[in-house]
Amino acid sequence: MKVPLVVIRVPKADAAATDSSCQVVVLRCVIALLLVLGTQIVGSAAAAPASQAPMADSSTGSTAKARKRSVPKAKKGTTQTRKRSAARTRRGSRARAKKSSQPRAVEALATDNARDNVTPVTAPDLKREEAPLAEEEARAESVPATSSPARADHEPSGGPEQPTLVPTEAGAEAVAEPRRTDATTPVDSSPRSRGGPAAHVSLETSGYLDTDHVSVLSPNISAGLTDDVSGWSLNGHYLVDVVSAASVDIVSTASPHWTEVRHAGGVSASAAFDPVTVGASAVVSREPDYLSITGGATLSLDLFDKNLTPYLAFSREQDSVGRTDLPHEYWHSKHVNNLQAGLTVVLSRSTIGSIQWDGSFERGYLAKPYRYVPLFAPGQAASIPAGTSIDEVNRLRLSLRPNEQVPDARDRHAISAHLAHRGDAATLRLDERLYADDWGVLAATSELRYILDVRRRLELWPHLRHHIQGAARFWRRAYEAAPGPDGILGVPVFRTGNRELGPLQTITLGGGVRLKLAEPPGNHWDLVFEFDAGRTSFGDALYISERFMGYSTLAVEATF
User: Alpha-carbon distance 175 to 554, whole Å?
Assistant: First the structure.
């Protein structure tokens, strides 16, 4: 039900803060360019000797095929690692947003990214990420490879991290070391090596916990069939999110601690018709007060012996947003069209890179049905410092407390670059993402991962991620009411209590380990464990000024 409002002009955001955000983004662009150029120079130098004597295929004598082998397929675990981290972040954000805080996480693109996932090797995995693009990243891990492109990848608000596939993050995935075939190397007798279809199954459990009293437990199962020779794949996944929350946003509205369960499942398929590969995906996510249905398609083209691969992706998401105490006919609707275009390039025998653009165009109800915004008397907002406690806010605020209201349209854009370089026994991955939307949010995300081959069956990787963003144009730490023509207090047209739309900065540090339990001949069995810890600082928000979080994943992956 709409409440009559008096339109109050909201002063423009501080020009200094806007200039500062722009300077940060420009600086990040320069740094990213230097990193790309530096890594390319190193990669070219390392590849020079080898390029003078191209390797030939002993069975066909094809130099082109030999060169293709020298840049092997990216290691499967690295992409999944990125997806898990972004998905966990979005889940935590979604939990805080719900019931008087933020709404459901829808994370990915940007924060972290979401979004999120079974994606065929030909369809970039666009997961949503919460955070300004980020904070709405649509349902954590349920978004298909083509969904949710640009979100402002925040961390827990994730960040629109999003976003991961050979096209999508070809450069982001680790470039594996070529296998030697000599007398000491066992012959792979698996179906994949014989040219037939191979089955893969993954069982995973993820956990998230933060200092804002939000916890998430997410068991997940995925399975699929892939035939590399015929060029087709079929995948499916199902996950459950068990969210428990008692965040400051919930406590501030005198709401009780709550627990909720979300179910999500999806399927995806792809087929190659050399040199074109097409894919399609569908995902359904259901919560007591949220229903999301997403469908998408992908297209990629292999050129120059697969050294250059342009790709396109599109998805449409249709959501129903409501409250548990409202009949479905009173729920609001929302739809999102996601677009993605990118290019993957093999830069040398040991280096691969990609660049892509993501666009997310949202229309409909974009606010959070459980979130209320405290209002203060005219002229009082300046005296309310950042981090003011719940008790102090309740003492100073007016009795009027309207629902959140934001624009009913939002266009998000993100440009990201990924680079992976393979050394003798390690792989370096660099990722940079720049984000902007028409709400005035600017963000930048940098990520580094270094995968070490400790032993033949053991891999370790440290992981570092930094995200920074500015505030939306209508963001205010404290909103003021203003008297209307008849003396009745009115409220600002646009108002929000979502601190993920304010200025914030997140640093995440962690790592992971992969143990190969079995190798050819026979089936592949991998055990994967990851752990990340992070800190988000809110520069201009009520209630809290920082949040610490930790998340981990334990997974068993098998290929038959």
Answer: 23
Integer Rg of the chain from CA:
24
Say which residues have a Cβ less than 8 Å from residue 52's Cβ, sequence separation at least 6.
none
List beta partners, residue 238: 221, 265
- Looking only at the bridges linking them, the beta strands covering 375-376 and 479-480 are parallel
pLDDT in tens, 274-329: 999 999 999 999 999 999 999 999 999 999 999 999 999 999 999 999 998 888 88
Residue 444 above 60 pLDDT?
Answer: yes
**C-alpha to C-alpha distances, 267 to 202, 291, 300, 505, 506, nearest whole angstrom:** 15, 17, 19, 35, 33
Parse the chain into domains and list their residue ranges. Answer: 15-368+382-559
Domain 15-368+382-559 CATH superfamily: monomeric porin ompg (2.40.160.40)
Q: Which tokens go with 235?
A: 């995948």
Q: What are phi and psi of 134, to 5 degrees?
A: -90, -20
Categorise residue 110: left if φ over 0, alpha if ψ from -120 to 50, beta otherwise: left
CA dist., res. 417 & res. 434, Å (int): 9
pLDDT class of 249 with cuts at 50, 70, 90: confident
Q: Are 503 and 470 in contact (CB under 8 A)?
A: yes
- Dist CA 219 CA 206 (whole Å): 6
Q: What is the pTM of this model?
A: 0.71
Angle at 418 between CA 140 and CA 428, to 5 degrees: 105
Q: Of 295, 296, 302, nearest to 277 (Cα)?
A: 302
Nearest Cα neighbor of 317 from 97, 127, 162 is 127
**What end-to-end distance do the CA atoms of the chain give, in Å?**
55
Q: Tell me, what amino acid is at 419?
A: L
* Torsion angle (degrees, nearest 10) of CA 468, 472, 473, 479: -110
